[in-house]
Structure formats: structure tokens, C-alpha cells
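Database export, one record per block. Field names are fixed; values are copied verbatim from the stored entry.
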Amino acid sequence: MAKPKSKSTSKGATSPGFNKAVQLLLHFTAVLQFNYGVYIFHTLDMPNTVPFAGKFKFLTFICAIIQALYYIVSLVNDFVGTNELTPKKPPAVRRFKDWLMATLAFPVAINVGVTFWTLYAIDRELVFPKVLDPVFPSWLNHVLHTNIVVFIVLELFISYRSYPKRSQGLAGLAIFMGAYLVWIHVVKHYSGVWVYPVLEVLHLPQRILFFAAVVGFTLSLYLLGEFLNNTVWAKEVKLAKRKAN
């Protein structure tokens, strides 16, 4: 008798059951972690910091809110949306999830993590003065500056997303970064102090170069995310393009 053919386990329509469990575990853990991190950070009484605008003047805090929002949306999508790899008509929650990951969650998280730890290695007083050590828990520092990178990279590998048109994605990210640069200048105008100590030691031409480098680096991270997504999920990207045509 001929042996029955085994069923294919390719990534055709939906993620395998194991992958679904991993997605749920990652999203649930991230929701608890980043929402709790945002809450604790918001309640901290940080010495030698500008009171104007509270914690909302820090890109780290805004990034943590973006991560918390993204994983909430992802968890909602797990239950009422779809994790089908290439759905014909993705629901609104899935479309928003894909857009948020591509345009903000991935590039901003990598930017915050890489920039923070690079400046920390050069001179920690530029981004995280020692005076904060007694009031800023070490675990919270890693949630906000390390785990955001770890979790978003894991998400890239376990969840496929459809990237928006490159021009639209880059435009959305550029608007976000431009708005933040305007915002920290507003904070400087009303408080008389730069949000980050590193800006205090830079002259105007150096600050302009610094801002340009940060924006350019962040936009390049969008392209990196798109490249990694297209590499990790090459078959799904090709399938989605065929369906679109």
C-alpha cells in the first residue's frame, strides 16, 4: 500500500499553531511589560530635570507609549483580527498593526536603543546622568532602552506584515521625527533648558548636524526594517505582490 502523503506545513494561509502560541505569548508579555514601564516612568520623580511637559518631552517615553500601543493592537488583532499571512481583505486592526510596526514601532525603537546605548558608552552623563541612579530602577532602564529592541526584532521574525508604499511610510516617519524636533525646541523655548544634556554641549552647527544625523539614521532604519521583512518573509512578499497584480 502506498503511504499517505503528509500534509504540507508551509506558511500558506495561516501561521502554524505553534507560531500562534508564540505570537500570543510575545504580545501578552509585551503589553504587560511596556504598559507597566510607561506607568512607572510616568510616576518617577526625576531630579535635575525640566518640569515643563513632564515625561512627554523624552523620546524614550514617547517610544515606550508607541511600543505599548503597538502590542495592544497586536493582541487585539490576535483575537478579533487575523494573522493570516496574506489575507485578501485584511481588517482595519490588521492594517493599522502593519502600518504602526513598519512606520513607527520598529524604526523608533531601534533608534532609541542604539542612540541611547551609544551615547551611554561614550559618556553616560550626556543621556543618563548618575544622579538618576537612586530613583531610576535598572530594570526600567532596560525595559525602555534594551527590551524595546529585543521585542521588536522578535516580532519581526514571528509576525509577517505588509509594508505600506515606501514613500508613504517614510513620509509618516519623517513627519513624526520632524514634529519631535519641533517639540524639543518648544520645550527649550519655555524652559530654557535642552531636554538632553548632549544638546547643551553642542554649538548650533553641531546641533544641526546632530539632528540631521538622527533623522537620517531613523529614516534608514525604516529601510532596514523593510529589507529585513522582505528577506525573512520573502515567499509571503512575493505571494502578496502576485495577489495585488
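Remark 1: The longest helix spans residues 92-123.
Remark 2: The chain has one domain: 17-244.
End of record.
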